[in-house]
Amino acid sequence: MLAAHLFTTIAVEGSAAMSTVAVPSLPPTASEDAESLRKALQGWRADKASLIGILCRRTASQRAAIRRAYAFLYREPLLNCFRYKLSRHHLLSVDFWKALILWTMDPAERDANLVHEAVKKKDEIYILVLIEVSCASTPDHLMAVRDIYRKLFSCSIEEDVASSPALQEPLKKMLVSLVSSYRYAGEHVDMDVAKLEAAQLSEAIREKQLQRDEVVRIISTRSKSQLRATFQQYKEDHGTDIGEDINGQCSSQFGRMLKSAVWCLTSPEKHFAQVIRYSILGLGTYEDLLTRVIVSRAEIDMKQIKQEYKARYKSAVTLDVAGDTSFGYRDMLLALVGSED
Amino acid sequence: MLAAHLFTTIAVEGSAAMSTVAVPSLPPTASEDAESLRKALQGWRADKASLIGILCRRTASQRAAIRRAYAFLYREPLLNCFRYKLSRHHLLSVDFWKALILWTMDPAERDANLVHEAVKKKDEIYILVLIEVSCASTPDHLMAVRDIYRKLFSCSIEEDVASSPALQEPLKKMLVSLVSSYRYAGEHVDMDVAKLEAAQLSEAIREKQLQRDEVVRIISTRSKSQLRATFQQYKEDHGTDIGEDINGQCSSQFGRMLKSAVWCLTSPEKHFAQVIRYSILGLGTYEDLLTRVIVSRAEIDMKQIKQEYKARYKSAVTLDVAGDTSFGYRDMLLALVGSED
């Protein structure tokens, strides 16, 4: 174990200050890392501690360089080696290998795969994947996901969502609009629009008419800055949080999904803290759900999610994860989530 | 005038074999071109023949290099010099300078500007801009237009279309879906889907129910290859062209715009030949319309458009353009359209 002072969270992408991935200030070269991974993969059990010690302490771009170096040195993709291990290992290790594969993938490719797996399913935990990828990502990341999805699956995300027999109207209409968006990503806000649209949303909530075209249009086309101003205006007008009001007044599936979209767009830490809690409190643990959240948010806003989790559930993510998962898989999640302050 | 053998149409972007821009096989460097342009811009009248002789014989990437070289050499953007000329010249030259500015711009930026100008207007010739940019472009070009639009105008295209008071439902719904699409761009086709959706479209046409969700979903999410197969299936089932049938059976504005979308998606030459004809036959000439089509299609499929025009109207684009436009502007359009074979 390296001394703590060797680790420092460095700027990666997006809100890197909120990353919990502890990258050493002087990491080995990508080729050295690839060689260490090759050694760690030898033998029937593989050296999970080494795999975690390397990959879970590297940024997305460092992991990309390691993938390239590995393919160059050993003439096979690193991910294929992981998939081979996954296919041959006993049940206890499945979650570990699945998480390691998702973490090692290019983030846009990972999300494209998660969306593809989710798009034909009815279950809300899969519908949430569509909402998370379309609303809790930056617009440019969503666009990268859409691009690679087309290349991997020979059709567009919006095409698959719009033609999915598993999804019903009016939810389908909202999901198609959300995954099709390419929002303005700057800070410019129009306060007149915020006032008008806060009132429109308020009327729809009070009349329990969330599926109105206006609601879907506002949520799926306005920029995150604009929506933040609109929701703030709503709070000033009513003294309550719009997400909580949607939840409280409209208990339909559409209402729950709309609330998730609202949170993913403007306070994703609330959404993801709730999903982590749900995945741990569930009968057993929803490992896929827990993996998805931790792998996809570790480099984005995991620090905020941990703070939100603590404030809301009076417990720590690390504590709850450690108590509810098994060796190997647990160590990997804990490496990504980082220590509690 | 340089000898014809010096000109050869070289590969640019998209379907470059259908470009009518005659690029010299050994063009001057970008800096030399920038110097020649500087000289041509001197004096009150400017040397239009030189401006045309240089810029209308360069590909989009060569024009980009010239813009960079000009800005580096003279510390001002080439386009600003053109805009200054436009602002000071008498009426006769307005069309020339406007066309030269559009041609010299980066194509994605040009389309973003055209969309922005069109989006708040009711007139069909402006609604057509939205359809042309969203349906007659490659998916990646549309994405580049959406990206630059956000940067230039601090909001997204779909946001402006969805909130435009000039557009009515159900047309607005279709336009929002069209501009939001990021279609699969490959050749993969599902023939079962083609058969099913040809039947769905046929039913909507016969029942004069074009605004159905199914119709908008098919037109706005399916890939161009898939739509080509679907429309071919329609032709085999009914012996008629789906575009003509939409036009014949449903004479509403929605029907006309849907037909334009269908043509832009799978046989853009038909659409643009018709628009050129309309712009010339109109009272006077719709110069903005004519400029837009020629400038935006010269490097894409102008050869095909000319063939279609000849087959359909028993006249040549060059002849009709020459007969209906004035000096300077005419020379520029003719340089872009190329000679008749």
TrEMBL record, chains A, B:
Coiled coil: none
GO molecular function terms listed in the Swiss-Prot or TrEMBL record: calcium ion binding; calcium-dependent phospholipid binding; phosphatidylserine binding
SUPFAM superfamilies: Annexin (SSF47874)
A matching Pfam family: Annexin
InterPro entries: Annexin, Annexin_repeat, Annexin_repeat_CS, Annexin_sf, AnnexinD_plant
Keywords: Annexin, Calcium, Calcium/phospholipid-binding, Metal-binding, Repeat
A GO CC term attached to the entry: cytoplasm
Keyword check for Kinase: no
SMART domains: ANX (SM00335)
One example of a Gene Ontology biological process annotation: response to cold
Annotated residues for binding of Ca(2+): 43, 280, 284, 322, 324-325
Domain notes: A pair of annexin repeats may form one binding site for calcium and phospholipid.
Protein name per its UniProtKB record: Annexin
